[in-house]
């Protein structure tokens, strides 16, 4: 996958780089587990929190709850409660969350291609 020669192609011409709306996409997934939760819900559909913990692995219920709240706040995930006894809730991606899977797959392709080079650069930097 070749990258465009102008990384700003198609972006609005803003007076300051800090005003770039693309920052929003990176900020909503800046926390470690948020992108993992989005990816898991995208791959497996709506899930209950306990099922998410089991599917993801390595995430505590507390950290998952924090990630789900952030994702709901940002409009990427919808909490769906059911009027049952005992109470039940599951989480599903919104339209915005589902649309985010496309660029996330692009980032995954970038990582598959360049992760070794990034890790090698980090090792070289730390060895200085």
From TrEMBL:
InterPro entries, A to Z: HTH_HxlR (IPR002577), WH-like_DNA-bd_sf (IPR036388), WH_DNA-bd_sf (IPR036390)
Highest taxon of source: Bacteria
Pfam families, per the entry: HxlR (PF01638)
Protein name (record): HTH-type transcriptional regulator YodB
Organism of provenance: Streptomyces lavendulae subsp. lavendulae
């Amino acid at each position: 996958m070749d990258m465009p020669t102008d990384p700003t192609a198609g972006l609005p011409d803003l007076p300051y780089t800090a005003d770039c709306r693309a920052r929003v996409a990176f900020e909503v997934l800046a926390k470690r587990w948020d992108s993992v939760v989005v990816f898991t819900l995208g791959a497996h559909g709506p899930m209950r929190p306990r099922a998410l913990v089991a599917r993801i692995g390595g995430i505590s219920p507390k950290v998952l709850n924090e990630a789900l709240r952030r994702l709901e706040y940002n409009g990427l995930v919808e909490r769906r409660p059911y009027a049952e006894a005992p109470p039940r809730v599951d989480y599903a991606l919104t339209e915005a969350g589902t649309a985010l899977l496309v660029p996330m797959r692009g980032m995954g392709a970038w990582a598959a291609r360049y992760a070794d080079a990034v890790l090698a650069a980090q090792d070289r930097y730390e060895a200085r």
